[in-house]
Amino acid sequence: MQLSFSTLACPEYSFSDMYAMATDLGFDGIEVRGLGREIFDNKRNMPFAKENVSETARMLSDLGLEISCFSSDCCLRYPELFEENVRIITEYINAARALGTKFVRVLGDDGPEAVDGGNDEEVIRQLK
Q1: Which residues, at least 6 apart from 12, have a Cβ–Cβ distance to it below 8 Å?
Q2: At a CB cut-off of 8 Å and minimum separation 6, what does 41 contact?
Q3: Which residues of 73-91 are buried (b: 16+ CB within 10 A; e: fewer)?
Q4: Residues 59, 122: Cα–Cα separation, whole Å
Q5: How far apart are CA 103 and CA 110, in angstroms?
Q6: SS3 of 40, please?
Q7: What is the C-alpha separation between 14 and 4, in angstroms, rounded?
Q8: pLDDT band, residue 34 (cuts 50/70/90)
Q9: DSSP of 74-117, one letter per residue?
Q10: What's the confidence (pLDDT) of residue 111?
Q11: pTM of the predicted protein model
Q12: What pLDDT is attached to residue 42?
């Protein structure tokens, strides 16, 4: 894969809008940062839900597209979110495995700026 774009730039697009744009503009892949508010919600027939991911993988392959990265919004600095993070990250890993995606992004903090009193030890613990 040589060139991909992030869904962060098009939060209101449907997945079909995204892969159509990717093929029309010559992209090789898509970094999935979100599809609206959820990407695994089975109630809305999301393409990366467990029940749909095999079909999505076939369709992307037919289009010559890859998912370059799944970028989660899991923030690892909060110990009280550990169980929820494990649940969410597991969904991302399972989807990545089904699609042959090599990368799943997690966050060490919930903002881009450096924060005094960060919780590096908790981030390391959750990563392990």
Answers
A1: 36
A2: 49
A3: ebbbbbeeeeeebeebbeb
A4: 39
A5: 19
A6: coil
A7: 17
A8: confident
A9: EETT-GGGHHHHHHHHHHHHHHHHHHT---EEEESSSSSS--TT
A10: 75
A11: 0.85
A12: 59
CA separation for the pair 115, 97 (Å, rounded): 33
pLDDT of residue 41: 63
Six-digit token string for 80: 């009280």
Please identify which residue in the block is written with the tokens 């999301």.
46
Cα angle for residues 94, 97, 100 (degrees, 5° grid): 150
For residue 120, give both structure tokens. Answer: 């590096």
For the chain, the average pLDDT equals 88
Q: What length does the chain have?
A: 128
Residue 101: name the closest of 25, 35, 28 by CA: 28
User: What are 55-114's pLDDT values in tens digits?
Assistant: 999 999 999 999 999 999 889 999 999 999 999 999 999 999 999 999 999 988 877 777
Contact 29, 67 (CB under 8 A): yes
